[in-house]
């Protein structure tokens, strides 16, 4: 690390720790050079770096200020209007294209939801796992308990206190990522041809699970700030035989909203009235920008009707394939599905993660990632507002590292992605997030990486391709 | 290692390498003491240890001989006679009991099919994985390719040449153990309420997958030496709308047989005539006592109708959760199921295993394990013949580490297991291996461990409990 980077890093840490608040004036260049015992030009370079990274802004003739990060995008997407009829999910080909797209280093990946895997705060986890491999002996090679490793389930129960949940370790079953949690939950509460209500847009992995299990999706209008419309859901439930609700109410993928607490409670009351279960995907919950994180729907559930699904794939690393589910009253059905589908969860990473949490490494890592993604969000929104066509609507994520963008004109983002790929940038086309082929003019972009010239250029490339397609239309 | 153990080990190695053949006379005690430069009593102790472990036998006034390992049990089980009607599988409670049974160190586990995890030949694998954790960087933490790691699929394709299969790496999808391979295959080729024909007795994990996916099992009479009866299967297929066949034709679990090559071919012809797929569970195939291993049904398949399922859970270690499937013409359906159920297979162990195979570690380990299990089999058969009631029927495994035992009297092995557990021994009750509650007087025992006094005592304890139950009956 160069000297000016060290100085910038020190300021960054103080902003993260709220020592310097949003909008506050920062020390002058002279003061900075004195405090850190560096030259004036080094202090200048440090501020320039922080400006590039979106931490600070300079105001002419006044100095440097912490960026005010509460500024929402100029225009949010509208309430979504999906086809409100139960339908078979399609789009598998498009999802497959996304999953199998080239991942070479020369492509800027804005498409898949992969967290920061180069963070120094992950190193202790790797060391713990390395040691376990070396010294763990035969037990680390054997099947784990069907429910998962005791030590990990204990730590998950402790972590979930932040979300308002009082879970016993035996309420929890570990899984092969959140995906197994979701599909085992779906299978546990439905039969073939059943109707499942979902928020819309919705995570394509959930939609594909609905498809593969022979179920039908009923997409419900969803607000970009408050989530699934309870009113629309109630109307749909009067009209259709909904057997389960599958939603991501906290730091939603792809929209980024967190449902207000009252909405979460109203949703739970509604399902209680109709006696149906909620499958709550909480995978981004720990990456909420507020601390403590928002409560889960599960935290209000006294009837065991919520199947809370989560994973360490977004908070730590997806390649570990460690997720979990707290299935409430459906524990036996989920355990059966878990057994027949994967038999048990990999042993070593369960023990590794448990130890990492116990040592405080998880909390440290999450704190860093929250601050990082929060800051990246604002820079990313700024870029999209700057480079994309006027009238572009942008989500305002409250956690995680995903941005939803709706273009003002009717251009197809599947084709857009083909064009951007040729320029070395991948995006996730909006159509993946709908059962009925909606959102063709939308896209999801991740802002995992620290803002950099490379990423700003990637956004510029996408904007250029959009411009091309728009001018071809007219 | 003590001196006499070293000497015994040297002899053992030479028997493994067929330097000393079955039935051959071994050097005298005096000769042994001279060759190895040890005392007479050390040489005597070495032979005594080898005798205890079942490698050698002493013939009075003649000397020590390599045990003749071709001796089959006195009485094999009869051709099975299951209920030949499609039925819903039950027995989940019993399976759950087995899976959740205490695994403390003071219990001799003869119940679950766990391989030797303390083998020194596994150490290089652990070292490779330890290094990957330390130096692998971010890529080892990310999602792997949906099909699995290229490097591992290449190695699997190479290994499978021994089974007569010419697979391209892209024909292979890695999975969370063989269990995911089996359930994804089942789901890919069936719809709810479909009928699946199975060998009988049959692996309980397959039966439970049939149950959980809403399918019906049709159990087909099965011979303890040649496997599923082709004639009975043909009759059943004329009578019932069979949609798939799920069998373990090589080193069967629980019976241990390997279907003769002609039977494998005839089975394939039959399914070709009816145009239905075969799900071939080959998880124990590499642990066949013959070298090269027997051909798989897949090796004769020119129509892509066989879904070959396997795993490193029995050949290396189950806690890694790395299996694979070569789904033939069903590759798209299986890939979809794989995606919605686990999204991707853990990254690090895939790379670790690939490197282990590439370095020759896998072949070395398998060679050791084959010899070890082969030898344990004969000792185990000897003990069961010695201690169990007259008329007990015993399987004659051709690979793997599992023995099937049929008691002459009608005692319930679920109750037997409850009694043996109190004496610190677990067995797998036969009823788990049937959809229709057959095999109540049968049990499966593993012989993973090196023969020892502890294990001989465990068999004696089981025999004592049987005796108790028999005398209570009369």
TrEMBL record, chains A, B:
Keywords: Aminotransferase, DNA-binding, Pyridoxal phosphate, Transcription, Transcription regulation, Transferase. Residues 1-69 form the HTH gntR-type domain. PROSITE patterns: HTH_GNTR. InterPro entries: Aminotransferase_I/II_large, HTH_trans_reg/aminotransferase, PyrdxlP-dep_Trfase, PyrdxlP-dep_Trfase_major, PyrdxlP-dep_Trfase_small, Tscrpt_reg_HTH_GntR, WH-like_DNA-bd_sf, WH_DNA-bd_sf. It holds the Pfam family Aminotran_1_2. CDD domains: AAT_like, WHTH_GntR. One of its GO terms (molecular function) is transaminase activity. In the C-terminal section; belongs to the class-I pyridoxal-phosphate-dependent aminotransferase family. This is DNA-binding transcriptional regulator, MocR family, contains an aminotransferase domain. The lineage of its organism: Bacteria, Pseudomonadati, Pseudomonadota, Gammaproteobacteria, Oceanospirillales.
């Amino acid at each position: 690390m160069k000297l000016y980077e060290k100085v910038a890093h020190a300021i960054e840490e103080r902003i993260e720790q709220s020592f310097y608040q949003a909008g506050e004036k920062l020390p002058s260049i002279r003061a900075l050079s004195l405090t850190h015992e560096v030259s004036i030009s080094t202090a200048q370079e440090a501020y320039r770096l922080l400006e590039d990274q979106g931490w600070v802004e300079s105001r002419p003739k006044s100095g440097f200020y912490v960026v005010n990060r509460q500024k929402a995008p100029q225009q949010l997407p509208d309430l979504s209007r999906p086809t409100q009829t139960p339908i078979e999910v399609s789009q598998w080909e498009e999802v497959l294209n996304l999953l199998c797209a080239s991942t070479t280093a020369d492509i800027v990946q804005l498409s898949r939801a992969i967290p920061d895997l180069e963070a120094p705060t992950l190193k202790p986890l790797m060391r713990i796992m390395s040691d376990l491999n070396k010294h763990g002996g035969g037990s680390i090679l054997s099947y784990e308990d069907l429910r998962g490793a005791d030590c990990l389930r204990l730590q998950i129960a402790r972590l979930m206190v932040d979300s308002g949940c009082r879970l016993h370790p035996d309420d929890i079953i570990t899984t092969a990522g959140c995906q197994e949690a979701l599909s085992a939950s779906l299978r546990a509460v439905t039969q073939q041809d059943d109707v499942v209500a979902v928020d819309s847009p919705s995570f394509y992995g959930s939609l594909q699970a609905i498809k593969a299990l022979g179920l039908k999706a009923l997409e419900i209008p969803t607000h970009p700030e408050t989530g699934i419309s309870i009113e629309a859901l109630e109307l749909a439930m009067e009209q259709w035989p909904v057997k389960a609700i599958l939603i991501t109410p906290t730091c939603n993928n792809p929209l980024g909203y967190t449902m207000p607490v009252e909405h979460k409670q109203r949703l739970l009351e509604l399902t209680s009235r109709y006696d149906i279960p909620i499958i709550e995907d909480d995978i981004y919950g720990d990456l909420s920008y507020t601390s403590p994180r928002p409560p889960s729907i599960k935290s209000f559930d006294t009837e065991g009707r919520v199947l809370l699904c989560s994973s360490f794939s977004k908070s730590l690393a997806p390649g570990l394939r460690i997720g979990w589910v707290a299935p409430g009253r459906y524990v036996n059905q989920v355990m059966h599905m878990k057994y027949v589908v994967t038999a048990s969860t990999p042993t070593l990473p369960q023990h590794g993660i448990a130890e990492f949490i116990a040592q405080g490494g998880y909390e440290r890592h999450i704190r860093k990632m929250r601050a990082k993604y929060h800051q990246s969000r604002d820079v990313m929104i700024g870029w999209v507002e700057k480079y994309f066509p006027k009238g572009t609507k942008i989500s305002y994520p409250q956690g995680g590292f995903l941005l939803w963008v709706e273009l003002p004109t009717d251009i197809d983002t599947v084709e857009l992605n083909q064009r951007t790929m040729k320029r070395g940038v991948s995006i996730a086309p909006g159509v993946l997030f709908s059962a009925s082929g909606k959102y063709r003019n939308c896209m999801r972009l991740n802002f995992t990486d620290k803002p950099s010239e490379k990423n700003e250029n990637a956004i510029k490339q996408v904007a250029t391709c959009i411009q091309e397609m728009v001018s071809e239309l007219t």
